[in-house]
Amino acid sequence: MRRSPDQRDDDRLLREGARRFLEETCPWTPCPPDEAAQDAARREMAQLGWFGLGLPEALGGAGADALQALAIIEEAGRVLLRRSLAADVLVAPRLMRDVGGALASLAPGLAAGTVRFALVPENPGTGIGATRTGSGLRLDGRSALALDAGRATHWLVEAGGHSPNGAMLLCVEAHPAVVEMRRLIDGRTGAVLTFDGLALPAEAVLATGHEAVARMAEIRDCAVAALVADSYGALAAGLDLTVGYLNQRRQFGQTLGSFQAVQHLMADAFCDLETLRSLLLWTAAALDGEPAERRRAARTAKVTLGREGLAAASRLIQASGGIAMTEEYRVGHVYKRLQVAAGLHGGTEAQIRELATATLSPEGRPDDEASAA
């Protein structure tokens, strides 16, 4: 991704400011902060302009691109922030820019931090169906796991995405009665939403048909990009912590970092980390490109997260020894963070199948060497 000198300066200042704020205001602790402290931190994020960063200037935002939004999400991953920023920093501003209408009217609230979005993906098994009624819509079905849906004021809901005939993308005001809370292994919270004839106004529809299918695909790719950015930040912080530990801890009169086997472990972890970083940059650039390229980049990055990313986190635990398995040490939580990320929005094997389907023709790809012979 090519950046002008001015853009690189803006990127650097944004990243440095975000890192300084998060390390001072939201440092990682073994015990999760209370809700009041997290709400106060969110209000400060709004004052810093994070939620208006990606909004177009016509809606009072800064018009930042995907790379800058992902930089904030990456820094949140470094401190293992327990609330997801993907919907508010990346996805919702892009939808407001492209869809407009009733959704765009929520832009002031989003920028002020009073409106909070959550992404509600459709459950592949049960699905969510939206039926038109005389006064609006009726929503039925069960969602997949949605991060922070219990704290959101609005949900971006995928419905009927298996076919353009019934596909709808909806913006739904949160209804606590349909929320089943889930506590995840990395300390974050998610929810499964069960809709049983929930009545919605017609204005809740953001897109239908082929446009809805395209928008839902874009949202999923953006969500994957955010997961990779968050995981990269968590893994980078974990690597820094582990290297510092290895350079201080001594065995047999030497630091652990002086042993060749340990150096090999850290070298492999560093290479895996940089691979993830390269694919994150590709995905950030592809988010504003052609859908096929965007989808290929997001799926490739997600596969790398589920394989090389988790392998690198395992190496950090191996190098750190027993301390890494304690609740008071961050490295074990980094592994849990990546484990959750690897399973959201399609697991690794599912991403591989989709990537193969999108890349290979039904007849397969001819072998270059055999063709040349």
From TrEMBL:
Residues 9-82 form the Acyl-CoA dehydrogenase/oxidase N-terminal domain. It comes from the Bacteria. Coiled coil: none annotated. The keyword Membrane does not apply. Its cofactor is FAD. InterPro entries: AcylCo_DH-like_C (IPR036250), AcylCo_DH/oxidase_C (IPR009075), AcylCoA_DH/ox_N (IPR013786), AcylCoA_DH/ox_N_sf (IPR037069), AcylCoA_DH/oxidase_NM_dom_sf (IPR009100). Gene3D superfamilies: Acyl-CoA dehydrogenase/oxidase, N-terminal domain (1.10.540.10), Butyryl-CoA Dehydrogenase, subunit A, domain 3 (1.20.140.10). This is Caffeyl-CoA reductase-Etf complex subunit CarC. The gene is carC.
